[in-house]
Write a structure and sequence with these properties.
Strand content: 15-25%
Order of helices and strands: EHEHEHEHEEHEHEHEHEEHEHH
Strand order of the largest sheet: 2-1-3-5-6-4
Structural class: alpha/beta
Radius of gyration: 19 Å
Number of helices: 11
Number of strands: 12
Largest sheet: 6 strands, mixed
Amino acid sequence: MESRITGHTVLTGLLGSPVAHSISPMMHNEAFRQLGLDYAYLAFNVGTDNLKTAVEGLKVLGVRGFNLTMPDKNLMAEYCDHLSPAAQIIGAVNTVVNDNGVLTGHTTDGIGYMQAAKDAGYDLTGKTMTLLGGGGAATAICVQAALDGLKEIHVFNIKDQFFPRLQALVDRINEKTDCKVTLDDLADATELKKAVDASDILTNGTSVGMSPNTDNCLISDMSMFRPDLIVSDVIYNPEETKLLRLAREHGCPTFNGLYMLLYQGAAAFTLWTGKEMPVDIIKEKYFKR
């Protein structure tokens, strides 16, 4: 790595807290190496307290762009000069492009999910989805799925203090896309069953079932699982969550969040470099199942 850093090396990176566990530096640096690009990608442990200062510093340093992970995604939207259509609807960004001090915020999580679905063999255009959760990943998926032509999305979330904010987001999606999106209380088992029965795909967009709490699962009614229902999870640790295991045991096709991570990174890579990430090589090296 050191041998290829030059006086012309273009800097990209990741801001968030914590970030030490991230696979993004390995993924991007290998992609730069494969394409012979004089770029480097580093991870910086920056929370919301220091985000503004960090961003100003990165602008001064002339970085090409950077990713954001928790807890910085929402706040970063306020520091951008422009937002992509999806980022504008969500009010959060995970990728920033710096054009000579002008920052444009994008959200590539939803792009990553839709590409992962395609990768698994599913074209979701015109389909109906039941989506569990209303956090960062779930809202990114919801917006991108609506922009990409899903017919209907049933969102279920716990009725907490953020529920009204989520309802406002759902209203914005309905207003700006042709997709019909509804929001219901996750505790409403009858409504959930009705939604899943009418859906082509069920997606867990929450962290429920993630390691180390792998015994948790938001679906308790096994009659929801039918062989023609695709079941997906944004979680990739463990590779097979309890939700995916139960779905598989009931004959459902499934896929996890591993390739969503790959493809959201690939979308960011293209925004910075104008080139396609060599995803097959990156997949083989870092995402082998």
